[in-house]
UniProtKB/TrEMBL annotation:
Highest taxon in the source lineage: Eukaryota
One Pfam short name: PMD
Protein's organism: Colocasia esculenta
Full protein name: Aminotransferase-like plant mobile domain-containing protein
Lineage: Eukaryota, Viridiplantae, Streptophyta, Embryophyta, Tracheophyta
InterPro entries reported in the protein's UniProt record: AminoTfrase-like_pln_mobile, MAIN-like
Residue ranges of domain Aminotransferase-like plant mobile in the record: 435-698
Alphabetized PANTHER family for the sequence: PROTEIN MAIN-LIKE 2, PROTEIN MAIN-LIKE 2-LIKE
GO biological process assignments: meristem maintenance
Ranges for region Disordered: 741-767, 902-932
Amino acid sequence: MPQSRGAVDRGHDRVGVSMLTQVRMPQLTPRTITHENISSVDRGFLSCTKGPLETHAPEDGQVDLNLIIKRGGYYQYLRDDGYPKHFPLDEHLFPFIQQLTIDDPDADDATVTAEREQLEWVILSGRDSMLGTCTFSYLSFPPDYPASIQFPDVKQLGFFSSVTDSITKALTIVPAIWEVYGQPKSGYSFSGLSLLPSGSAYTSDDYSQFYLLGHILKETTPSWYDGWSVTSSHRFHLGAIEWLMGVLHHYHDLLDYVGIRHAVTAALYSYPCHAGLLQALAERFNRRFNTFATAEGETSIDLWGFHRISGLPICGGLYEKVCLDDLHRDSSKGTGSYHTPYSLRYLTKVWRDLARAGKDETPSACKSSVRVSLNAWVSFFYNGPFCFHNSFAGDTTSWGDHYQLSVEQEENVSFLPASKNKGWNPRRLPDRTYLAAYLAYWLSTFVVPYGEDGYIRPEVLYQACALADGTRLALAPAALASIFHGLGNLTASPTPRDRAVVLPTHYLSAWAGLLLQGFCQQTHLENISAPLLFLFRNCPNHVSYDQLRNARKALSFLPSKDQAGLNFQHCSWGFRPIAGERPEGMQYFLPGQQEAHPSFYKGWLCNIRPSVLVFRKGTAVILEPYYPNPFARNFGYDQATPPNADFPLSTRLYRGSDRHLVAASWWCYYIQRGPPLGCTLPKAERLGQVDVYYARWWFRHSNVFREQVDRIKEAEEKRLCRVDLPPLAISTTFLKKRFPTVDPSLHGSRRKKEGSQKPPLTEKHAYTGAMKPLERPSISGLKDKQSLSPQKHYSWWLHLLSDCGYPANAALSSPILPDGYTNDLWPHWEQHLKNSIARVGPVEFISQLDNCTHLQDLWDAISKAGKIVKLDPKAVVLPPSFSSIPDAPSDTIVEDADFGVQNDEGIGDMETDDYHPIRDGAPSSDEEDIPAADDPGRAIITSGAEMPGFPTPEEGELSRGRISKRNGSALVGSDPAHPVEGAISGDLEITPPDHLGGELTGAPEQSQLVINTPSQGYEIVEGAIIGEDSDGSGGVATGDVSMVDDTVGSLQTLGAGTDVEASGATCFASHRDDSAPPASQEVTPCVLAEGGLVPVQRPDFPPHGIVWPDDSQTGSEQGIGFLIEPFIRSIRMVIEAEFPPSIDKVCDRMEASTRTYHLMGLPRDPWMAGIDSMWAEVQDLHAKSVRESIDLQIRQLGGDISALESRLADTCMRVTAVGTRQAELASSSAALMDEISLLEQAIERSSIRLAELKPALAVTAEAEKNVTAEMEVLDQERLALEHELAAKQSMLMDLQIQISPSS
């Protein structure tokens, strides 16, 4: 407990704390919420909410009836520019919707409810009650709709796309005996148990090493040098501990219900940050696999161990931080009940008003600058009495055992504090709301603090309210994903010692302390099921450099017969699920617990299965891979060799518009259920052994991890002595103590300004965070284990038409008449389409399905919903469960299937702290998804010169897809029996135009359209369009499309209404504004080849000038094929003699050959066609030369731009760091000045009091002197009386003796 004066920094608010009072904290009232009545605790679905700054508005904010219209069965709320965005207010809208009636007397309750919901959706879809203070997102799994099961694309799963029936495997293990020098030796074999995938088949694989330690040894990256910029998220805030004590007292059973009571209790205490241990582990962190390398193998923070340390659940719902818009948050069911609980609606308004507090006006605020500090949030819900000052709780956690502090606070207009010293729940909020308010603080500071340093974000409120509402969430995967992401950002930095990262160091330090036991202090643990984090509660920190040195020794040590190695199973040993057969089936228990629960087994499955951990935070999704097979010993399994494979993620921080669908697909993959017999549980105290094949494989790749501490220090010292590298801000005391041979003038605190300068570009490239491209490894034995068949894309449109009795080529104008159907599947399809729109997010389009009358209306609703999140309409609807996919002989319903969805919009749109552990051949952020040329349903345009002997187009062939006949353009049939010499690589692909029903007209499956390109002497007519020609059928390809490097720009299939501008020409596909439904072809934007780059325009090129002689000829056309070949060969020799070919030489040879050819009496047309074709080749070669020259310049400029961008990013990062440091120093300076002011005031008051007390002291001294003299007189009088009394008593005794009978 605090015993002294001081000051607490509470944001911009200053809090003075006086001496500890003698008044105890008030006793909390008995809790009223128990396990028995949890379900009856009000959730507030029937109540409106009002923010703290909202006042009762009887007139303002009402629903304006003049703005409501209904057209074509749809409501509209016509807001003008002057209409407030946050109107109408809930207090008016909610009763208005419930009282709405319709004129139809025959309408039943369901119809009235649907009308109310539709009108409310229209009003809320245009309202922003948050006043622009935050960015809204869609939920991955909408709560009022059935969850859709979707998985990532097979390409994203990579090696792990093969489905196995087992997770564990029994095999014969030959244990390894480690040797300090030389290869490990073999022990006696035994029957072991390993995790899949692993085995001796992978011992030939390489191992990808992305470690900071290697760069330190190479002197390319500075070491720590006693520097550590990682910030702990768990810090003291005035009032938070008292608030938590009350939460634990009153809501003990509510927290137990969702499985987080112990995890929340842990926030009562302080925990050390073992910087030295964390630095040693960070040096060995592999960003590709999220593992830590030691001399004897890999380990990592596994899910089971993290659950044991933190107490956070492994199983439950997806934890995603999202901020819902008004439509998804404030809509009601039309029957007097909201969809969301009171807590979410109220706390959202509290956050909004706290963000706007202190402003003179309340306009829309900038989203990037609107913040709510943790102190403002705490003071709003709890404002005294206080009993903790700059310290956390001790062993006593009851209010009544503590004494109060006298706190004086300065008013701060940016805060809206509760009434002072009103105790528990001063605003008398509902229980679930008050609990959710604290859980928002707890999640932001203790569990998943990614990007939350010092602030409460609105996205955290949804999940805090879900927990308070009784929803169990899987917090462990999200928290572990944020930790891995933070470690990746830290170790990918050019200077990790200066990288500012906020991490839950209490979790990390606890795991490090359990792995490296003996290097930090631990306390006792009363309950075996309590989080292991409690072992480190209120323990002190240690000297970081000594810890670092000791940890490096331990991590580089190879075990021997006399000394054991690291304890990898420190978290799971003695605490693993136990299977027990019961009459009701197989049950799973934990040691020391009598109650069985299926989550024990489910959590263990998620713990030992490779997956991707998902943490969604608003506009971004963190995707961090999780591979347990390299550290099987953590769980008691035997360690075999893992494959050098991973999930080919293109980014670890995805920010596309479909981020909620990406998160949902990876989450479904994470929670997939395996067969019960496919997993063997190890015994609770089983110790995993190391297979000798793994030991030898690891020994080959782990030289750097066995380096001695002195070798690391030597490399650190060499780098400090290098004058060609920037100086580092290192204290002189540290340098003199740890590196006495280094000249302190090279570094030190006085060189900070120099050290913050930009390092040389060569050094920057040496340790840039983005890793070099890595070729995807080939996995031994993979070909035998899996053979991936071509993917198929599912066409829900054709599936719907088939189920509902429409032909495959049904027109979009076909009516929807449910009453006329005899098929029972239509109602199921209608509900499935509504669920699909809700899954994607824009539920405002669901009402369009209720009012659609034609297939066109149905397609429009789906395509518009997909357009909101930039998703192709074909990916909006997943295969239904009520109907199997019909058989289709030509794969019209299922083609190139990909039941997961992800666009590439968000891959390149990353935050500054995103990093690429590897590239592995993954497309860059600006690459488009260009389909392969062999995809079905496309016409392929190839190059074919019109030479004698080749077939010419027959009449009627143009119906497959035509090109403008102007300027000699024509179609040439493609005959496989007559290959075209010099065919173009990277052929232009154009899909034939869609019929309304998606059927291809007159195009056999095997046929290919071959269009003469400029290389055959023709030009594509400029100014025309790709779409319908004058006949209204068939495609017209036009525009000045340049030819470069024998390649025509590759076009994906054009969707209707798609405009593409390339090289000055415009391509347009007609029919409708929205995409037409697909059949066997894709509906995607037009994209040029070469990675989306627009080809360089062909420079002006002279004609060849070859004219057929006018002289008369004699001869025969017989033997043309024989006679023409030598002439063609001679011209081609000149063309191929140099690059690019000389125009004059080619023209001379063509002219001479033409004269000779003419004199031989051979025909004109075949020859001139060949001349045109070869001249076009000359044109292409010159264009290619120009393109290569420009490409070289582009690459050079790209390199320069990349270097400048890198330097700019580094400068911005340093500016941010300096700004942060400046703010911290300013805050510290203000704190010191305030404290000095308080001390000066105290001195002044003491001086005045001293002047008052001196005269009083003199008077008191004189009185004391008089009293002393009087005391001396009284003492003498007392002594005299005592003597006289004694004499009298003696005389009395003598007289009594004289009269006694005996005498």
